[in-house]
Design a protein that fits this description.
Layout: E1 3-7, H1 12-23, E2 27-32, E3 51-55, E4 70-73, H2 80-83, H3 88-109, E5 112-118, H4 145-165, E6 169-174, E7 177-178, H5 189-198, E8 203-206, E9 212-214, E10 216-217, H6 218-229, E11 239-241, E12 246-248, H7 249-259, E13 266-269, H8 284-290, H9 298-313
Parallel strand pairs: 1-2, 1-4, 2-3, 4-5, 5-6, 6-11, 7-10, 8-13
Antiparallel strand pairs: 9-12
Helix pairs in contact: 1-6, 3-4, 5-7, 5-9
The structure holds uridine-5'-diphosphate (UDP).
């Protein structure tokens, strides 16, 4: 049994990770300030004796009395709708100061620490698909920069703590992911389109909908995250994780409209500034090192996600 800290543990990915770690028989301390996370996501774990919830912002240093073996650093608003605008400075602080605090905690405990990094480190990529060796094309002063540059800086200090302080690190670069535990008002495209269709409101496509994303179902993603954390000690990453099947936003809208009978109509809104035109992970490293490949197709994952939203929108 491992003693594991998950920051952002009541968020979309964090909550799915906590459920998995508890099911595997670990002891889990879930840290969240509930800024975008929701306690309802971990409600099923609150009575479990191996689970503890700690309301805490990682921007503030904190200590944990009991010994920790592993830290998953997942705390950060991750939806463009959540990290832009009035949360931008907070997002940079969470990425950078939060990472520094968690690295310090990892050092004190002699723990391995895994960073939830992102495909956003590649910005609006000029290379397709994106390999880990690609340095990216990021606007340092745009409305997405708080997240993109914040996560890039976090990767940089992770490596410095590894080189200077000997802290064992792992970095996963997470591509677009969807599934249960997303909030209906998350703002990302899959949850928006499904909730709009279920609530019979307009389906909001940004721009002409020709931009692409590659969508990974959350269970596939959690599987590789756990494998990377428990992989060879010298495997730091960064490693891309996501589903390499690429779809346009128009194709995604069509799939969801085919699955949900609804009078909703498609409308087009302006494309947000710096919105990446294409995104597609090269996952050959994850495949080679961990013999991992996503199993759940977009159709199957959308069916499961639609069932989840049906339940929470109309309980
Ligand atoms: N998008 C859209 N309609 C929405 C939300 C998002 O067309 O209601 C677009 C968004 O502009 C982007 C893509 O869908 O091109 C994926 O957006 P999301 O916010 O899910 O994640 P991102 O990959 O941009 O971080």
């Amino acid at each position: 049994m491992g003693r594991i800290l998950v920051t952002g543990g009541s968020g979309f990915l964090g909550a799915n990770l906590c459920v998995r770690l508890i099911a595997d028989g670990n002891r889990v301390i879930c840290v969240d300030n509930n800024c975008t996370g929701r306690l309802t996501n971990v409600a099923g774990l609150l009575k479990n004796k191996n689970f503890r919830f700690l309301e805490q912002d990682i921007i503030e240093p904190f200590s944990i009395e009991e010994k920790i073996d592993q830290i998953y650093n997942f705390a950060c608003p991750a939806s463009p709708a959540a990290y832009q605008g009035k949360n931008a400075i907070f997002t940079t602080k969470t990425c950078v100061i939060g990472a520094l605090n968690m690295l310090q905690l990892a050092k004190q405990h002699g723990a391995v620490i895994l960073q939830a990094s992102t495909s956003e480190v590649y910005g609006d990529p000029t290379e397709h698909p994106q390999k880990e060796t690609y340095s990216g094309n990021v606007n340092p002063i745009g409305i997405r920069s708080c997240y993109d540059e914040g996560k890039r800086c976090a990767e940089s200090i992770f490596f410095d703590y590894h080189r200077e302080e000997g802290v064992p690190i792992r970095i996963v670069r997470i591509f677009n992911t969807y599934g249960p535990n997303m909030a209906p008002d998350d703002g990302r495209v899959v949850s928006n389109f499904i909730c709009q269709a279920l609530e019979q409101s307009n389906i909001t496509i940004h721009g002409d909908g020709s931009q692409t994303r590659s969508f990974c179902y959350v269970d596939d993603l959690i599987e590789i995250i756990v494998r990377v954390m428990n992989g060879p000690r010298d495997f730091t990453g960064p490693v891309n994780i996501g589903n390499p099947s690429e779809f346009t936003i128009n194709e995604l809208a069509k799939k969801i409209l085919d699955k949900i009978p609804t009078p909703s109509k498609i409308i087009h809104l302006p494309l947000p500034k710096d919105d990446p035109a294409r995104r597609n992970p090269d996952i050959s490293l994850a495949r080679k090192e961990f013999e991992w490949f996503p199993k759940i197709t977009l159709d199957e994952g959308l069916d499961r996600t639609i069932d989840y939203f049906k339940k929470i929108l109309d309980p």
